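> tool_call: predict_assembly(chains=two)
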Amino acid sequence: MTTTAELLPKTTLQNLPEFLVRLRETSQKIFDSKGFPGNKSEEYKYLSLDTAALRLSLDGLPKLQPTPKNLSKSLISFNAYIVVVVNGVLDIENSKLPISESGVWVDSLKNTLHTKPEFAKEIGHLADISDGFVAKNTAEFTDGWVLKIDKNVKVSKPIYLVNLCTGDASFFQNTRNLIHVGNNAEVDIYKHTLSLDLNSEIFQNGVTEVYVGENSTATFSQIQEGGENLNSVNYFVANQAANSVLTHNIFTLSGKVVRNNTQLVLAGKGAEGNMNGVFIPSSGETFDNHTLADHRVAHCNSNELYKGVALGKGSGVFNGKIFVRKDAQKTNAYQSNKNILLSDDANIYTKPQLEIYADDVKCSHGSTTGQLDEKAMFYMQARGIGQDAARKLLVKAFSGEAVNMVKNEAVREFLEAAIDRKLNND
Amino acid sequence: MISIKNLSARIESKEILKGFSLEVKPGEIHAIMGPNGTGKSTLASVLAGREEYEVTGGEVTFNGKNLLELSPEDRAREGVFLAFQYPIEIPGVSNVNFLKTAMAEIYKYRGLEPLSAKDFLAYFKEKQAIVEMGNDLTKRSVNEGFSGGEKKRNEIFQMAMLNPKLAILDETDSGLDIDALRIVANGVNKVRNSENAFIVITHYQRLLDYIIPDFVHVMYDGRIVKSGGKELALELEEKGYDWIKQEVAEEA
């Protein structure tokens, strides 16, 4: 169901840096000439984005929604700073921001343009506007969140970003986020997308640009439980300076159409980039993951592990590219994608890609798609474990390899329970 | 306990069990011996409910229930246990979690409350001692990276945990050195009581020095062709199977 009721006109952002004003104009031109990428585009060929959902882009933004009172029940309960974002707008009242911790700073993008104009200048340098969704976002983003960790700061608690979608209106939203992790800093970030009382179909087109400073360590884990009314294109690009370690984890558990673009740019010597993911589409869901490990300089490592489990008539995609440029000697790059189909009607397309222009590198990739191990199933049944419980144990074990990459125990437990629920509903 | 009458079964188009009959009462240990390829492991698989095998005739009654109509998990919940000849590795599923799930499912079937975490742990430790399984093994994923002997010990450990009414040991002694064999046999002897029963499938008399059978049966061409007491095993060890094959040929 889509409805155009209760929308506000889109507002113009004030105080944009000059560079960004020009970039927005260029992006608009690119978008006007190319439009959204369709099935004919190689990069989006398995993604059937509903044209009705894309037309939502013509409309305005939803009125401000109060944060639902029952929100806390759906959240992960752990000791963290909480940043609540409702339909793309920061809800300070319901957040627990790190105001007392020095060197950690969170605000809306809109405010940042006024209060930290120097910082706002970092927007727009990493995301690739040749992608139609990024062009659209860059031309039209209205708000988003911004997170800055000063150099040498080890953030004392995880930062938990709650990306909540709610309300009766249909809308298309371009949100723009920026993370800056200073040199020698450390931070553990979780982004949880969920919907509560979301009664019409919406489209979130998000772009997150991340700077990871020298010798810093950052993790960014995404839990996606958007529900049947959320379409989302979720673009994440990080630029890693020398000797930085970034781990990006993404768990796509519900949503109508979810496209995850994850790009790590290894731009400084000795950087390490890790990408892990689990995606579990069931009937009516398409979860599409495109990743890029872009090795630009020598002596960098990248590791990647994606696990797909398709249920019912669910559809999944994994497309992972390792790109080793000619100066990136002594690169170590590993990629693994394993998939399980739990029904005859489910499908997963997988495409590992290696593009290597340096000669002294170690790269490998592997991909498998199959059913649950029948021998293991029988072994469990022979011990009195019914097929449902056996299947759950095996899927938990299968996805566990990626779930275990998450640092925080409470988040891991939440994910295990969420995966169990997903299998129960199948 | 279990009554197997005229059981016939095939895999694909190959008939393997051809009118197999056996009666086992509580407290008894039956050994089944015989040359390779006579259907011993097929018997174990059919009783456990492996789907690849098609039962073409006969009946199996287990404590008054038609065993062949039950799913593999329900057979286990009724108290049938198969110690696998080749135990399966399950990466990512810990032994503890595996057995906790199995016991919870069995208790639920029987209408019992599951053990508390504390009671489960105490029970787990008690049974661990029976097969001399250290925490290093039980904390790991089910059978993952276990040696052949460790896998077999784990089968007996699982048996001790699940406390079945009827345990079928499918060549549990194969690939074991003498120390492991002793540990496995000790495990069986500690679990054995007047209420439960064992069917021990083996090639070698050696195991039967440690697990003393009440009956020894020789299986050949899909059925039992000769039965006797424990002394039959010694005779087979000494004389091999050719004389049995000859007897069968003469009868035909």
